[in-house]
Amino acid sequence: xxHRLLGAALACCALAGVGAGxxxxxxxxxxxxxxxxxxxxAPGADGGASQRTLDVRVTxxxxxxxxxxxxxxxxxxxxxxxxxxxxxxxxxxxSAVKAVCDFAGMPAGADSVGAALLGLRALPDADLEASGHxxxxxAAGELTAYPVETLITLGDGPDLGLSQAPNQRDLKxxxxxxxxxxxxxxxNRAVERTLLSVYASYGLRFKERNSNCEYRDHATGTxxxxxxxxxxxxxxxxxxxxxxxxxxxxxxxxxDHSVLPYSDAALEEARGGETWTPGTGPELDLRPVAARIAAxxxxxxxxxxxxxxxxLDARNTADLKLTGSKVRGDAGDTVTARITVHxxxxxxxxxxxxxxxxxxxxxxxxxGTTVVGWPQEECAQELPSEEGxxxxxxxxxxxxxxxDRASHAFEVRLRIxxxxxxxxxxxxxxxxxxxxxxxxxxxxxxxxxARIVVNG
Length: 456
Known about the structure:
Blueprint: E1 10-17, E2 30-35, E3 37-41, E4 51-60, E5 70-75, E6 83-86, E7 91-93, E8 98-103, E9 112-122, E10 131-140, E11 143-145, E12 148-155, E13 160-162, E14 168-171, E15 176-185, E16 194-201, E17 204-206, E18 213-218, E19 221-228, E20 237-246, E21 252-261, H1 264-271, E22 277-278, E23 287-288, E24 307-314, E25 318-323, E26 325-327, E27 334-346, E28 349-350, E29 360-363, E30 369-373, E31 379-382, E32 393-397, E33 401-402, E34 407-416, E35 423-429, H2 438-441, E36 449-454
Protein name: DUF11 domain-containing protein
Keywords: Signal
Region (Disordered): 157-182
């Protein structure tokens, strides 16, 4: 299935310092950030067209510096033949196609500022083959920008989009919640039916398994594919409500949903060759917010807003416990030590956003031994250095999720170079990983360390 995906990338251009500037200005670098390309819906049958917004920002790298207020120059003459521009209040038009926009300064500690929100709309008689560029330059104090541009093209078709539902925090396990979003069509053609794809992570449960959906349970949660029969016309908005149960094992949960114009091919591709089970509950329906009639279309003009993810965090804990092992052998023998991370629950633990390991375990070789083998895909070594540890240190990472009452083990091969009675080393979890800090969810850190003992 072929789709046209536009507008997600950012075009950035460095700003070079000219002359004397703020303190440390020579070490700083500023950027103009704008969409590299976007597609405008062509006018509909009634001559009207939906508006697109270009969000243009100015950023810089060295946040120890302050950047004074500046000006962004926008030149839209390249699209004047097929589109018109709506200027925001901070922009002063020099003509219908060119304006100068004031943007605020960035004090030390700030790395970006909004420069302009530009509205673009296709003209009633626009040629579908037309394309052109909106060009930008900027200056702030002694800093001057090199040009950046956005390619604008026209498209004829529907453009489904989902609003971003807010993340949810501090949910109580065993209670219900809802994710509310709006499905809209920003294109110039209607969609007769919509294919909705949904994912709810392991700690969440769908309150209903709807009869117009099919479901697949897997290790990290449940996925659903739903066919929504309501036609979505240009300018029309529908409310989409997903009712969820926050399970007893919930902790860091995730809910994903996306929309596409329905086709048999799109549904088959979404199934991915897996087995799905139809639901038996009431149908999942969209509730209209506004209505407008237009001809139907197939291809979605811009997929950048078709998918959204919502994070749902529950008030829960998971007690990780680390166990080591005891091994024996003679000088010259190679033995296998086992390090195991147990999740004693009650919650499962998953890093479904950042993709961080549930636990990272650190250890060094016991006295008289050398580590000669470890799981290459899960473990890494840090060699001795002047700045780091005096001996080689090993770090082993679990997968990004660990179910309640489940465990994950690492097998480490040790060569016994010299028999040292009772040689031992401590293995411990790193409890302050910024992506997934164990300290925040584990109520008992005392059992997060253990020992490997050789000939003890």
